[in-house]
Amino acid sequence: MIDALSDYYSRYNSNVHRSVHTLGEEATAAYEASREKVARFVGTKAQNLVFVRGTTEATNLVRFAWGHRSVHKGDLLVTTLMEHHSNIVPWQLLAQATGARLEFVGLTQDGKLDAAKLEALLGQSPKLVAVAHSSNVLGTVNDVADICAKARRAGATTVVDGAQAVPHMPVDVESMGADFYAFSGHKMLGPTGIGGLVGKKEVLEEMEPFHGGGEMIKEVFLDHSTWNDVPYKFEAGTVNIADAIGLGAAVDYLSELGMDRVRRHDVAILKYAIETLQRVKGFRFYGPADPAARAGVLSFNLADIHPHDLATILDEEGIAIRSGHHCAQPLMKWLDIPAASRASFYLYNSPEDVDALKAGLERANEVFKV
Amino acid sequence: MIDALSDYYSRYNSNVHRSVHTLGEEATAAYEASREKVARFVGTKAQNLVFVRGTTEATNLVRFAWGHRSVHKGDLLVTTLMEHHSNIVPWQLLAQATGARLEFVGLTQDGKLDAAKLEALLGQSPKLVAVAHSSNVLGTVNDVADICAKARRAGATTVVDGAQAVPHMPVDVESMGADFYAFSGHKMLGPTGIGGLVGKKEVLEEMEPFHGGGEMIKEVFLDHSTWNDVPYKFEAGTVNIADAIGLGAAVDYLSELGMDRVRRHDVAILKYAIETLQRVKGFRFYGPADPAARAGVLSFNLADIHPHDLATILDEEGIAIRSGHHCAQPLMKWLDIPAASRASFYLYNSPEDVDALKAGLERANEVFKV
Amino acid sequence: MSTADIYKELILDYYRNPRNFGTLQTFDIEAHDTNPLCGDEVDIQIKVGEGHKIEDIRFSGKGCAISQASASMLTELAKGKPLEWVKELSKEDIFKLLGTSDLGPSRVKCALLGMKVLKTGVYGYLGSGAEGTEPAGPS
Amino acid sequence: MSTADIYKELILDYYRNPRNFGTLQTFDIEAHDTNPLCGDEVDIQIKVGEGHKIEDIRFSGKGCAISQASASMLTELAKGKPLEWVKELSKEDIFKLLGTSDLGPSRVKCALLGMKVLKTGVYGYLGSGAEGTEPAGPS
Ligand SMILES: Cc1ncc(COP(=O)(O)O)c(C=O)c1O
Ligand SMILES: Cc1ncc(COP(=O)(O)O)c(C=O)c1O
User: Fold this and answer.
1) Does the beta carbon of B161 lie inside 6 Å of ligand 1?
2) Annotation: CATH topology of A259-367
3) pTM over 0.95
């Protein structure tokens, strides 16, 4: 990926789409080839993939370009208690701007979606159902194909946050049936500053554009403008060319490994981690107990040690964990904790890393005299 | 710049602001240090600089986060005929959404702003005056300090598009007095996917947030959220960390060269280019004749050769020029041409490059039997 | 092949002296499109005659030599052909007209603009939509 | 110094047994702030006595050991001091209380949260705004 980036800058740094000269054509070709690859990786066509900065820009693009046209006063928007802020705050803002109301699907004790509550809300014909493919705190993998099918029958448009799913398992947006699917490059070995929004073609075509500017227009007159075809309609201005190409390189790497293998490794290490860490005094983890119902992350707390303090102690042992609310404050409130620590496992993690984390937790217990 | 990027990815690839562990702190420190540098480079304080994808995202951020709150039915918005689409289309869309009207300041024969028309529009107390610091087609450098002062007296908020100015001359936003100042990293030896929006502190603080999501919030409740301080309020989700750091490196390089020197070189080469190329049969250029009234670019046409064809021919000679409407269709219509060729000069260009361009134009004349 | 070879006598001639340039008094089909990259525009009008034949055809537009010459050449080729023939038309046919296929991705769009407009118009007239044409691609 | 040394007896003791924790029945000053990074919260109440002195002070909140211990230590130090004294307070004073300044940029914000809240409250009361305090910094 780093190679792809510096290759881009040193060899064909030039603006895509605009230039006739050779440098411009190479950059355009590489950018569009990357769009092809990334689209195939998540199971869609290139023309349905809009490059964005990341999941947050993706959901906000839907908020502005779909929501402001399609959502009206009194409409119901549905999200869930396990969402990342990027799949909550845009809908709060959309509800405020339009006079719609926002309701949350609650959770069961083991951190899954409350199916009865979801059914009940679907019975009220919501305009939007926004749900994570996999939770960045609980790890829960939701049956998004089933949710999308039910939502469609209820007349709702679906937004699936795939930020935590795309890096960890095979994803096929077309068979899933989501209207919109969002993800971030930096979580899947790609660069920061790039991600994708997949949309159903007919939905993308009906939408308002998002940013106004270069590239997204066909013609600009003094009193109005006409729009370019999708996905270009949503990619105004100079796009993040180098990072889009970098994301293509990351996808090549993951495809070569095989996402089925990545998924098997993920479940195996989660299983080992849950078994191992549960033996540490004061350790409590969140989300499903069954590793096969989870992906990627294991959030936990240790005795009365604040996660922030725990991270500082583990950092000294060379163990990097994230601590805090993980951009999921509503979930934190539901779990009734101010914060949590989170170990993220990926293809480069081995059982030895889990053992090192266990030793680190034991050391923290010593420092805090637990 | 390439070194800064790969250093980032191989050494401290980690999310800013969120992590307690060491990698996170280094990334935060480098990202914020870059904000300091870039802010200083354009003459403002770090807290007034929002990192965005580029100029287009900057003007659209103003459109959504300032415009939707501050502009009302019947209000007047003012832009100019020499603007890039990114400083026109957002205001068209804002006018359509709010019922405001958009008026254009016209141009004089030598490609400067029509001062009388500007005065007349200012007399109607516009809400917004949007103007380029320097035109990407005509090269014209506008006296934006004067325009901002007059606009302020007329009660208007000012948006200055600095995309073509920041790379070519010393810029001091505070003394200029613009409410908003936008620029792009990729035009100033920085990476694609990063740029800046400078805002006056009190204006930024009053604004709505832009994207909803992580990092821009203080607290998320089920029914509402509270916002983080500026500039973080406008930087939702995972930011383009690596490219922000890369932009800092580009700014280091330019600062070391000295922007006064860059500017002197720019004027000298423009002078030489105008003198030299005017001797080619059929050569016509656009914008002020005085090189000191221009910056960076020289747009032209050659006989009846379409710029697109010209670019193809020059490409074979190893000369990269941009051809087309340059995202300035209203200006093309005013110039009454379908397109133009544009030579962009920068610090790495020498008089020899101008000579090569002259030879290339002569070759094109041969091919086209002019 | 040298790039400049693209601009052979033939193309230059069609660029400076386009055949079938202009508009028809009466026509049954009209279509228009632009290539946002360079602002090339092509407009085609067709008068449909006996047996769904292209009785008369005119194009107008502005843009680079390649887009205008290829549109002009295409109108010459199309005149007298049945409308169904338009469905068979492929980019190879256009390259044959121009005498080259060595154009590079963005110039190819210029070369194919006339064909795109012709297909859009004829498919619309035949009531079958223009899904089969090359996608427009980025601007 | 080893990081773990930060969590010396002293800090741990203040974390598990915070002094001046709770709320006042009547108070003249109240201020609250959070550190968005970790969700640390501190709330301070002050009863102002004779000669603008801090007659009584309580804090409440939740968060990491460093934020809660330093807030608690600060209330002990502040009690009985004149309000003006708060203006003199600097981060070095807090580091002295904690017995370390070797915290790293994001933990420093935890350590200084109590001081930020105290200054916000007192400056507000004195009617001079809290411009002089450290900026909040990114979340
Ligand atoms: C004057 C001017 N304004 C705005 C822009 C748009 O910048 P960006 O494409 O980086 O958003 C450009 C360059 O493309 C420009 O030259
Ligand atoms: C589940 C989930 N959704 C959304 C996001 C937001 O992604 P980004 O910060 O790249 O916009 C993240 C990661 O931060 C995430 O884990």
Assistant:
1) yes
2) Aspartate Aminotransferase, domain 1 (3.90.1150)
3) no
